[in-house]
Specification:
This protein is α+β, with helices and mostly antiparallel strands and about 80 residues long. It is built from three helices and two strands, in the order H-E-E-H-H.
């Protein structure tokens, strides 16, 4: 066998990770923290339509964590000024 026998043409190129239909819908977003992320254009349009801020996953997780902490404080009867 020669080297040419091992080379196969890409007949199934549609299924490779370099040619995915969804990649053309990705838009680059500049987050408030300075991070540049790729976001699906339909997801971006929906968030903007709902009046939500476009943010990276780290900023989103930090915001959700802060919201959960505030809710826990509210329902436990603590105030934001109280210390341990």
């Amino acid at each position: 066998m020669t080297y040419g026998d091992y080379i196969r043409p890409l007949t199934n190129a549609v299924n490779t990770r370099f040619n995915v239909d969804g990649l053309s819908r990705m838009k680059k977003i500049y987050c408030k923290c300075g991070c540049i992320i790729g976001l699906d254009s339909s997801q971006m349009k929906l968030k903007l339509k709902l009046g939500k801020e476009l943010e990276c996953t780290q900023c989103r997780n930090a915001r959700i964590s802060k919201d959960i902490d505030e809710l826990n404080m509210h329902f436990s009867g603590e105030t934001a000024d109280s210390e341990w």
